[in-house]
Amino acid sequence: MNEKYRALNDNAKERMLSDLKLITNDKRVLERCKQEIEILYDRGQLFLIQYLFLYREIFSKVNYRFNGFENNLLVLYVLGMSKVNPLEYNLPYEVFEESHDLTLYVEFINEIPDNFVNECNTVFCDTFILIKGRFEKEKDEELNKLLSNHYIVIPKSDYKKIGNISDYRDVEDEYLTIKLTHKQPIHSEHVSIINAFKTDFEKHIADIIEPKDFDDYVKIISMSYGRNVWNDNQDEMFINNQIDVKNIISSREDVYNYLVEHGISKKISLEIMNYVRKGRGCPDCTRFSNEWNSYKKIMKKHNCEDWFIEVCSKIKYLYGKGRAIGECLYALDESNYNNCDIISIVEE
After folding, report:
1. Distance CA 231, CA 324 (A)
2. Residue 242 and residue 234: Cα distance in Å, rounded?
3. 229, 223 in Cβ contact below 8 A?
């Protein structure tokens, strides 16, 4: 943990544990939430989650979405901050733990409240403030626009040291950052999971796979974020009837859960998952060929099927499942639509 935030996280841990006990007495749920709280604490991000929870409770019933592996955290679902239930969709928190990105990506439904940052800096000024960070001196306007919604989280003890930030790069390695975005309403007369598709690539895969249920759509969207996950890999296997839609490896969670189900330890399963998601099993990634061959021996020893090992050896980048689930849930929520008259959801 960055020591700048230790006091903030110490206070947040005690408060959040108390809040959880008021919400649920399910021992299984509480035990997992406690483990996730420890992970957030160790990463130094727990106090930010606590603030978002308090803001939603005190100021406004805003709705959040998370665009990263925060979707794997049950604690966010229990606190009412996320609509993705990791238990329902088999999203292990260990995948979040393996992520090294310490930026918190928060998406507001419809729009970011105008007073969000001001209220934060007024009510919580005794603990921290948010300062907008951007590449002010950068000539690339698109880059400036991209980073204009990033905020540096400054502890009270560092107020006077910082002053005005003119260049995000000056402090991005020293402080936590939070990125605030918003999700536009869906403009359609029909509530349909098909509205989760944003690209022709996703629609092309759907034409071939012919998705029948929620999980099928999630797989399609997950694959769209990856590289060599469908094209030049599982597309040929699917067309040749070597695999069906339920076998398709579309996300990091698919790899991890498959390995654990075949008796491989969680530690080794996470290591293999990370090799796959970074493309280190590909033939052209010769630097890691010895390590990958060792992992293949482990997989074969645990009776992992040849097609699974072949798929993993071709993937160049693999994304997470939680974001795809969030997209599908968003498309099925009537409240996220403008001028919607007809309801047509995916068959269960």
Report:
1. 18
2. 9
3. yes
Tens digits of residue pLDDT in 5-33 = 999 999 999 899 998 999 999 999 999 99
| Last residue of one domain, picked from the residues 183, 217, 240 | 183
Q: What is the mean pLDDT of the chain?
A: 86
Q: Give the 3-state secondary structure of residue 310.
A: helix
d(CA 28, CA 180): 32
Write the single-letter amino acid at 323: R
Residue matched to tokens 């290591």? 271
Entry pTM: 0.87
Domain hosting residue 72, numbered range: 3-183
Residues 71 and 141 grouped into a single domain: yes
Q: In this structure, are strands 186-187 and 177-183 parallel, antiparallel, or unpaired?
A: unpaired
**Rounded to whole angstroms, how far apart are CA atoms 264 and 259?**
6
Residues of the chain with pLDDT under 70: 60, 110, 123-124, 133-148, 160-170, 172, 339-348
DSSP secondary structure code for residue 231 in this structure: I
Q: Do 141 and 244 fall within a single domain?
A: no
Q: 46: which 2 tokens?
A: 């727990």
- 197, with CB counted inside 10 A (0-12, 13-18, 19+), is buried
200 within domain boundaries: no
- 334 secondary structure, DSSP code: G
Distance (Å, rounded) from C-alpha 239 to C-alpha 232?
12
> Do 141 and 41 reside in the same domain of the chain?
yes
Please write the tens of the pLDDT for every residue from 74-117: 999 999 999 999 999 999 999 998 887 778 888 887 677 777 77
32 & 108 share domain: yes
Query: Total structural domains in the chain?
Result: 2
The two tokens of residue 232 are 């030049």
